[in-house]
Amino acid sequence: MISARRALLWVAGVVFLLVWVFRDLVLLVGYSVLLAYALLPVVAALEHPLSRRGARLPRGAAAAVVMAGLVTIVGWLLALAVPRLATQAARFAAGAPAAIARLDLGARAYGEAHGLSAWMNPAVEAARTSLSDILQNMSGSLSQWASGGFGGLGQLLGLALLPVLSFYLLAEPTAVRVSVLRFVPESAHSELSRLGRAVDRALRAYVRGQAIVCLVMGVSVGVLLALMGSPVALLLGLVVAFAELVPYLGFLIAATAIALAGVAVGPLHALAGVGVYVVINWAIGTFVAPRVMGRYLKMHPFVVTVSILAGTQVFGPAGALLGLPGAAMLQAVVGELAVPAPPTSGKSVSIQAHTPD
Fold this sequence. Notes:
By secondary structure, the protein is mainly α. It is 80% helix and 0% strand. Helix 3 (59-113) crosses helix 9.
């Protein structure tokens, strides 16, 4: 009989091997777990009756309703946002050379009128060259970042499996857990169940904290953009809220979307919109996010930042989303291992498959 400690070391080695060899698969599973935890409160609300006499919706049906609704909403947002942003990007790219030429002529005329041409013309020429290079490389850089971030998961099959895996985790969590435990020596079942409960608490805390930060960010940016007269303020608020899930790269995505949407009104409107987003992002990132995430995860902002960087280092840009919940899980497991396990009767834990109530 393998001891529980040796079994845990064996499990840790297998997990490390999976992370190292099957990185794309680990990303897919990690995203599905986070999505399932994010949707868990909604499924629970649908599963339980609203009144004592209300009919109870089965867990599987509740999960199916929630997942179908999410896929519909995401598809609608993509169908609404992508064409608009693509149109604005095309207009911006088409009008950028003319705008740069106007700025160049205006700057040169100002320099000649005030006798500053000797030193102003070279500076203007250097700025024009740099700006042209930036505009030419912008689309290539965005494509490269997107490919690097979602190159493995960006395949159609992987994206299609994401809601499917999350549905299984929501509809039959106990059956999934029982099936996974069958790959682990029986002597480690009790200890793994104890660690699993600690991981469950950590992930729930992460999801609650992240949901609050995303909500505050999306509402703040959406309201201020609406006050500025943005025609798609609600859509941009949703983009900002979802982009907040992806550290660093999400900032670039949200700022680009706000800029492209603002071009339809005017260059100054686009610049003001990006400025508002930058200020709000800084304020919430400085005063709100550390307090909220620190309260739920008990992590210093330094540890939070290092965790995100570690996820990016291991999995690329797509791993930035998994860095913080991964650190929360590790912290929970280490904390749980530091506490002596409660005495058991020596009997193994039963893992008979059953459907959750």
